[in-house]
Design a protein that fits this description.
Blueprint lengths: L1 H15 L3 H10 L13 H7 L2 H25 L3 H16 L12 H11 L1 H4 L1 H13 L2 H21 L5 H17 L1 H9 L16
Helix pairs in contact: 1-4, 1-5, 2-4, 3-4, 4-5, 4-6, 5-6, 5-10, 6-10, 8-9, 9-10
Length: 208
């Protein structure tokens, strides 16, 4: 069993380390996407600096990072725990990718991909929560931080009440801690009223 956990964790981390944002940035802009905007490789920075189509491509790739190891754990290894560990490793790989100098994104899309692979029906609720936050506020970072926290809380409560495997609760707790940690600069700007809204920010020098 330990070997199965280790194998899926390794697969998840390596898959999560694939720098889709970096690759698409070079294809569309001919430069390192981390030199613009937030300095990250995730969908939001690609959207602000390269446009909608590249952002959609990156979003699909980053979501798939979480989906694949979760499905491997569930259907190849037949273990909820192995699935959760693989998905968590994929998010870790996205944030600290070995193939991109350990400078990646903030993990939100890959975290959602993990939920999609672990519990597909429940994951359908989360885009609704995201929309309810982003539409009235137009803050992507608020959607990422608050939305991830709400979604994680739902999974944890369902696990406590026996409606989801306990391993999924551990995944949710790990993911929300990592996402919130990576968004600390955004949270500070939100509190200060200086965080750029959706559609703004553009091609500016990279910051935290």
């Amino acid at each position: 069993m330990i070997a199965e956990y280790a194998a899926n964790a390794a697969a998840g981390y390596l898959l999560g380390s694939l720098p889709f944002g970096l690759i698409v940035g070079y294809l569309w802009l001919g430069k390192d996407i981390r030199l613009a905007g937030s300095g990250k490789t995730g969908t939001t920075n690609v959207l602000r600096t390269a446009g909608r189509l590249p952002a959609v491509i990156v979003l699909a790739g980053d979501v798939s990072k979480g989906v694949v190891p979760a499905l491997l754990g569930r259907y190849v290894f037949d273990s909820d725990g192995v699935a959760a560990v693989g998905a968590a490793a994929a998010v870790t790989g996205h944030v600290w990718p070995i193939f991109a100098g350990f400078r990646g994104g903030r993990g939100v899309a890959s975290a959602f991909g993990g939920v999609l692979g672990l519990t597909p029906l429940l994951s359908l609720l989360f885009p609704v929560i995201a929309a309810l936050i982003i539409v009235p506020t137009r803050y992507m970072s608020l959607m990422s931080t608050l939305g991830t926290a709400i979604c994680a809380a739902i999974i944890i409560v369902l696990a406590i009440t026996g409606h989801q495997p306990a391993a999924f609760a551990w995944y949710a707790a790990f993911v929300v801690a990592l996402v919130e940690y990576k968004h600390i600069p955004n949270i500070r700007r939100l509190l200060a009223g200086t965080e750029p809204k959706f559609g703004r920010g553009g091609d500016r020098p990279a910051t935290g």
